[in-house]
Amino acid sequence: MTKSNKWTKASSPPSTPSPIPNPPSVADPQRMLRRPLLIASLGNPPPLYKNTLHSAGHTLLSSLQQYLSYPPFAKSRPHGNGLSSSGNDITLWQSPTLMNVSGPAVATAWKTFLRDLPNEDRTRAKLVVVHDELESPLGKIKLKVGGSARGHNGLKSCVSSLGGMAFSRIGVGIGRPESRESRDVANYVLKKMSVVEVQKVIKGVEETAELIVELMLLFTAPDIEAQDKHLQRPLRPKIDAGLRDRPSGGFGDSQSFGVFN
């Protein structure tokens, strides 16, 4: 296996999209395969709902597109009219619908994603849904595989439309209002984030990228089941030291990630 290039900062993109870095050494590197990923963010459609708390998943995914130096998002009719950006083994996709009815579009995008893969890759492919997480501290990133939607209507819609298929979830915390009244909660999640709040959300892009590296690892049977069990708990993956050695000091102002454009 040849060594992949290091990631570079979005402010200095390489001539070609930089690949996800390889994981640290494994017992038998020849057994490792990449797991194709469709990473789908949920939220409400822009421009009215851009950078609202309920659309924090879209904000994070937009930052990830810049971080990976992937092509700009473009509308894709075959992918349920969502915005799509592809590179290497990963397709980033933003749902075009209102949060509560995200499921049908996600299911369409997933079906198209699988159809476009080589036959041998389809059983290894995984769906990852990026969404806002009420009650979790603003900007906190958490990975979960399967489990309950815990009252999140966007996730409920996905579970229903995907026929109960297990998928991974990356939640980005949006805090919580003091009141638990349904009207107050609705007003809270639909409010626009401040510049500082947006920056807290996009600060999670590097940790999100680390989780993606973890999700891309795939070993041939019988190791698949063991790996999926490993991913059943929140984790901070141990990955290539080169990624951790990225220069400190944050990612510049929010404009560099296009989140206010």
TrEMBL record:
CDD domains: PTH. Residues 237-247 have a biased composition (Basic and acidic residues). Keywords: Hydrolase, RNA-binding, tRNA-binding. It is an enzyme of class 3 (hydrolase). NCBIfam families: pth. Belongs to the PTH family. This is peptidyl-tRNA hydrolase. It comes from Letharia lupina.
